[in-house]
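Preliminary data (for renewal application), 2-acetamido-2-deoxy-beta-D-glucopyranose complex.
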Amino acid sequence: MLSLVILGALVSLVHAKFYSTYPNIETCVGLPVQYSCENTTVVKDSCCNVVQGGLVLQAQYWDTYTGFESHGQLLPKGSWSIHGLLPVNCDGTFGQYCDLSRQYDPKPSPSTLPNGTVITPYKGPSVRKFIQEFGRSDLLHYMDTFWINQGAPNEEFWAHEFSKHGTCASTFDVACYEPRYKEHQEVVNFFETVVKVFQMYPTYDMLAAAGIVPSNTTTYTRAQIANALYSQTGADPWLGCYDTDGTVLEEIWYFHHVLGTEQYGHFKTLDSITPATCAETGIWYYERTPTSEKAISH
Ligand SMILES: *[C@@H]1O[C@H](CO)[C@@H](O)[C@H](O)[C@H]1NC(C)=O
Ligand SMILES: *[C@@H]1O[C@H](CO)[C@@H](O)[C@H](O)[C@H]1NC(C)=O
Ligand SMILES: *[C@@H]1O[C@H](CO)[C@@H](O)[C@H](O)[C@H]1NC(C)=O
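Predicted structure:
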């Protein structure tokens, strides 16, 4: 009996450590709904709708190594990895580091904004700690599996993505969480949202299902890759190849307009507004270095 009581106390203790991360959007209920960038007369409330950065990109990487293997930082086998969720304004311009009071990036890039503002490197507790403070070890585990940095710890990349891009998406403004805002709530909520949208696009499986698998002996055409993704998403994502002749596939961006909030609203997949940097033929989708990958459970 005593042990049951103790167990009960322990369970409630663990429970008490979970904090909710959702914004306060009660006032949005009953307002007209509309996709971002599609009707600026209707869409005005920046907590209810994505007003700033309404063209939203879900970006994924295909890297063959991490440069941080010695720290156990490996890529997820059978999956692309997360780059982030990038808000672009409806006119194609984009902001960065939009709220310097929420600057958690230890290595700001760029370190000076086009308007001359210098971004001070962050030296406080890591965003990893923010996630832990909200009791979200599940989210942390997922991010450590799929959101992988190159040559530096994952949490630096996550912090960079939030501070450079997350602060430019209106539905993550601190005001949207009032009056019960708990510090860093929107950071954790942003990370959850990035994961949610990433999960909409299992790029590795979509390509593999169309016969396009990583190979160090066979190349693909751009049309093969584009057609495979179009057949499952109904849109043409941006295909990024970074070598000079555009023959090494490394990144994909899926474009959207969003109805409601980024957190819970509907993402409508759209064609890329920017041309692919991949050549038309001879594209390498390289196999990863075997020691740079780890098996994962989806
Ligand atoms: C924008 O919304 C307003 C109000 O709901 C509506 O009257 C108008 O037709 C819409 N415009 C477009 C282009 O959808
Ligand atoms: C430059 O941009 C930053 C970030 O958006 C902003 O905080 C700052 O006020 C701007 N500075 C000037 C001089 O416009
Ligand atoms: C495939 O080629 C890439 C690029 O040269 C290399 O990094 C990777 O280790 C190779 N993978 C295998 C399994 O040989």
